[in-house]
Structure formats: C-alpha cells, structure tokens
Amino acid sequence: MKQKIWFTGFCLGLITLCSSAFSSTQKSPTHNQAHFSWFDYSGNDAVFNQALGNDKYQNPILAGFHPDPSVVRVGEDFYLVNSTFGFFPGIPIFHSRDLVKWTQIGNAIHRPEQLPYKNVALAQLGVYAATIEYRNGTFYVINTCVGCGGNFVVTATNPAGPWSDPIWLPKLEGIDPSIFFDDEGKTYIVHHRNPSPQKYPAHTALWVMQVDSKTFQPISDDVMLVDGSAKVPWHTEYIEGPHIYKVDGTYYLSAPGGGTGYFHGQLVYKSKNIFGPYTANPDNPILTQFGLPDNRENPVTATGHADMFDDGKGNWWAVFLGTRIYDLDKKNQQDPGNFHTGRETFMLPVTWKDGWPIILEKDKAVPYQVKKPNLPTTSRPMRAMTGNFSVREKFSEKTLAPHWLFIRAPLSQWWSTGSGELILTPREDQIGEYGNPSFIGRRLAHMTASFGTKLTFYPQSPGEEAGLLAVQTDEFYYAFGLSENVTGDTVLRVRKRAGKDTPVHGETIIEKKIKLGDSNTVFLRANIDKAKLGFEYSVDGKQFTSVIDSADSRVLTSAMAGGFTGAVVGMYAELSTD
Fold first, then answer.
1. What SS3 state is found at 79?
2. Rounded distance, CA 467 to CA 571, Å?
3. Of 75, 78, 109, 77, nearest to 92 (Cα)?
4. What's the CA gap between 441 and 431, in Å, rounded?
5. Half-sphere exposure of 318 (CA within 13 A, CB side)
6. Which residues are catalytic?
C-alpha cells in the first residue's frame, strides 16, 4: 500500500525548471525557416457543456492522449504519470493536491540520451505503462521501452526533475513492471510475462520477484501469480499492467485483462503471502464498460489499467484509462469505437465490500461528473487539462513548456523560441520515416476542436513545406502546408497518409494556388468535428477560405490506425527529397 510519507521539498516555483529537455536561443531568420507566431487551440465537446457544480469534478481528469495512469501520494501531494510510446519527452509528471486540478511539472524521460528512440514505431512501440513510487526521499518510475532497451527504472529526488539515466533490468522479462515497497523493508517487482508454453497468442500471466532495493536486480525466483488462461467468467486474456497493494496485512494484486479495447476490465486478487497463492475476486471485474448497451449516450469504453491509492483521509480512489467514442465500429472488437482523442485518464472513488475493492458497480456507465474528494481546494492550473477551453500559445519563453511533444527524440537542435514565435528548420527527416521530423505538437483533447497558427515561410522548392500537422501514427496523418509547385507558384497543399501501402509522403488530396504579400504570411486553421476534418486559410487573419471541409478524420483514430496513442496536432516544416 502506498504509505503516508510527508514530503516538504515541493514548491510551485519548480514548475519553470522543467519546461523542456532543451533551451533555445533566437536565431537570425532565414528564408527557408518556418516562423510560427503562435498556436491556437480550442475544444468544444457537448458533454463538457453541462454545468459543473462546485462540489463536482469533470471526467476525464486528463483529456486527450493520457493512457495508463499511475499515482503516488507523498504527504499531501499527489503525482501522476502516463505512457507516451514513441513521443518525446516521455512519461509526463503531473502534480495535484486536490486530485482534480493537475499541473504538468516535467517528464521522466526528458533527455534524448536517456532512451534510444531511433526507428521506434510512434504508436506501437516506445514507452509503455509506467508506475511511479516514492521511498525515503526518492521518486522511482519503472517502465518498459519496447523496441529500445526493455525494462528500466529512473529516479529523482525532485519529481520535476532532473531524472536519472535508466537503470536497465535485463533479467526482467515482459512489460508493464510495477515496484512494490513492502512495509517489511523488502522490494518487489510485479510484471506481465508470457508463460511457457503459451496456449494461445493472447495467453499472458502475472509474475513477481524480490529485487535488490538499489540495483533492482533479482534476488528471488520469478514466481507466477495469475495464469491468464484460467477458466473464469471474465476476460483474462492479455492480462498485464499489474500493481500490488498491502491493506491490513493482505496483499491485493490488481491488473487489467481483456486487452485495451472492447473487453477491457480491471481484475483483483488477494493473498496473505506476496508470492501467493492468490484468490480471485468472485465479482471480477471491479471496473469495465463491457456489456453495457452500445447505444448509450456519450459512451466511455475500454476502461482499465487502473491504479488505486489512499488519499490520506481514509478514502480510496482509482485512476484508469478510458476512451470517449463518437460512433461504433463493430468490425473491430478491440477498438469498436472511433475516437481520435486517445486513451484518457479518468478517476473514480473506490469502495470496499466484503474485503474487496470496487471501482464501479457492474452495469454502471462511467460518470462524467463525480463528487470531489474531501481535500483542500487549490487554485486553477495555468493550463486546462479537461473540459472545454481555448488557448493561444505564444512561445515567449526560451524553453518549450513540458507538454509539447516531438516525434521520437531529437538529436539535434532544429527549432528555436524566445521572441514570441516558434522557428522550425525544414529537414529531410520526413513524417512517416521513423526519424525525427521537424514537428512540435500537443495532444488533441476534444472530439470537436480547431487549431491554427500564423505562418511566415518562403518555400524555395516544391519539396519545402511548412504548416499544420495532425498525426496518429507514422502511417496515418494529415499535413496542411504552404509550399511551391513545380512551376514556382505558391500553393497550399493538403496531404493524407492512410496506411503502410501509401507512400511515406502521403497523397496530395488537394492543392490550391494562393497569392501572398511580400512577407509570405498566411493564417492556417484546421477544424475537426468527430468524423469530419476541414482545412482553411486567411491572408489577413479575419476572412477564412476553405481548402477542404469534409476530409475523413477517421484517419486519425485508433480504430483505423491501430496503436495506443491519440492524435497529436501542431506545426511542422519539411524538406522532401521525393
């Protein structure tokens, strides 16, 4: 069980110390650099328009691509982490005191040299489900980087960073490890691992080993706790993401089963010995949306990957991932709904009955509004994390804020900020090539949203392009850019890539000649409304002209693209050699 440990070193002033892995200085502009004056984002989902009472909080607590949450309490402070897969920086660190208002204070993976991201598939590989823990003045994040090294631990004395280089765990098999510090002074790692022999492709199991408290190397056998092939009336295939808690002398093992799609649910087992045997809760799963009517209003699906914790007031809570879908796709049972907002972080109270925790009663839909925890109210964070909001980001600081994302880790400096604009240098690293293209973006947090920018750019060849990008995976994206055609005309071009069989550069779905002034400045805007996506431009920032208004936004959904992320939108500059 996460213990009540008082920690007094945190202060809000540290937020500014973790803005980015890189600081940058303003460079002298050149014609082939793309200058972005600002980035606008506005979201307006109908479900967030319902009045929120003063005693309620809004689900999801972290909207947009924030999957696989884990929380640790340190005194009166709560810290939360999420998985990030192939995006960098990796594993955002959030802080809260009331469990409702969350502020990102840093990232656990904030230096490119920490992990070898090169050639890691953006949404299938990379940084998986992380767990955060704390003991004796040190924070620990344990994780798996699939495709770039395996299982590892990073540590910090300040959760805002800096975080250490990884302690690699070569003898730990599988994914989704979680540290458990027993009150007896021992340290354990519980994790997913394929059994041998595997009875079917989705046959997985949960294991635990005692490890050295400093090196995390094993000092016991790896012991199987739960075999996912057990015949039970709930889904145990793809059982993974385990956590162990100790409550009143009993060990509780909680883990999701059923995969991260339609059948996703949270399971719980208990034992008097950490190595088992473990007894399954006869009322499993303790959280799922499987079995509810598909035609319910504003459905949340695929709930699971939960982490439970005590809030220090005797109350228990669970954070977990869920997906808000806007229509169904019965052809794909793992992702039956279309959603481009990714797997988001939700929170619900945990109740206890007959010695078992319950996150949500069966046949109950995840509520969007829930009674607040009985914790002191804190001020509103500087950046909204849920609900409807609009924001203009002006790039006035010399470092990027910690929420901006790159496609894999940059190994060179190709951007600058600090004088009220973001400057990107077009490079031959193209989107879709498993490199690090010149792109900086933020998570798309709404089904209905718009995002835009003011761009000044002088393309010098048909291969030079800069503008707005919406990306789900390396193979599924939309680009809306200012460029030049083969006859030297200035054009706006919309490109789409929708699958591995499509060329890396995608296909041009529309190209429009435009006339700009001597400054070569244009205002670009994208509008997404569930399944529809539109692109428009303006030469004065007031009157906008549509380039295309009904592109298929399902290209940006997990149902079509696969993977485990959500759409990320932002600004790019590219030098194509096609």
1. strand
2. 6
3. 109
4. 13
5. 29
6. 68, 240
Reading the block at residue 220, the tokens are 């016991």
Name the pTM for this structure.
Answer: 0.94
Calculate the CA dihedral of residues 293, 299, 305, 311 and round it to 10 degrees: -110
Residue 150's region, left for phi above 0, alpha for psi from -120 to 50, else beta, is left
Helix (H) or strand (E) holding 560: helix 558-561
363: alpha, beta or left? (left if phi > 0; alpha if psi -120 to 50) = left
3-class DSSP state for residue 192? strand
Q: Helix, strand or coil for residue 555?
A: helix
Return d(Cα 201, Cα 333) in angstroms, integer.
16
User: Cα separation of 528 and 229, whole Å?
Assistant: 42
Name which of 417, 373, 327, 332 is nearest 26 in CA terms. Answer: 417
Q: Which residues pair with 78 in a beta bridge?
A: 73, 96
Nearest by Cα to 305 from 317, 322, 325: 322
Q: How far apart, in Å, are the Cα atoms of 252 and each of 35, 142, 200, 373?
A: 53, 19, 27, 23
**In the CATH scheme, what is the code of domain 389-575?**
2.60.120.200
DSSP secondary structure letters along 163-191: PPPPEE-TT--SS--EEEE-TTS-EEEEE
Per-residue pLDDT of the chain (578 residues; tens, 9 = 90+): 444 333 333 333 333 333 344 444 333 345 589 999 999 999 999 999 999 999 999 999 999 999 999 999 999 999 999 999 999 999 999 999 999 999 999 999 999 999 999 999 999 999 999 999 999 999 999 999 999 999 999 999 999 999 999 999 999 999 999 999 999 899 999 999 999 999 999 999 999 999 999 999 999 999 999 999 999 999 999 999 999 999 999 999 999 999 999 999 999 999 999 999 999 999 999 999 999 998 899 999 999 999 999 999 999 999 999 999 998 765 555 556 899 999 999 999 999 999 999 999 999 999 999 999 999 988 888 899 999 999 999 999 999 999 999 999 999 999 999 889 999 999 999 999 999 999 999 999 999 999 999 999 999 888 999 999 999 999 999 999 999 999 999 999 999 999 999 999 999 999 999 999 888 999 999 999 999 999 999 999 999 999 999 999 999 999 999 999 999 999 999 998 76
C-alpha dihedral, 157 to 83 to 469 to 385, nearest 10°: -70
Tokens of 331: 């052809």
- 3-state percent helix, strand, coil for the chain, nearest multiple of 5: 5, 45, 55
**237-267: buried (b, 16+ CB within 10 Å) or exposed (e) per residue?**
ebbbbbbbbbeeeebbbbbbbbbbbbbbbbb
**Domain segments of the chain as ranges:** 389-575
Query: What does the block give as tokens for 380?
Result: 């509103």
Instruction: Give dist(CA 283, CA 363) in Å, integer.
Output: 13
Q: Which residues of 54-66 are buried (b: 16+ CB within 10 A; e: fewer)?
A: eebbbbbbbbbbb
Q: What number of residues does the chain have?
A: 578
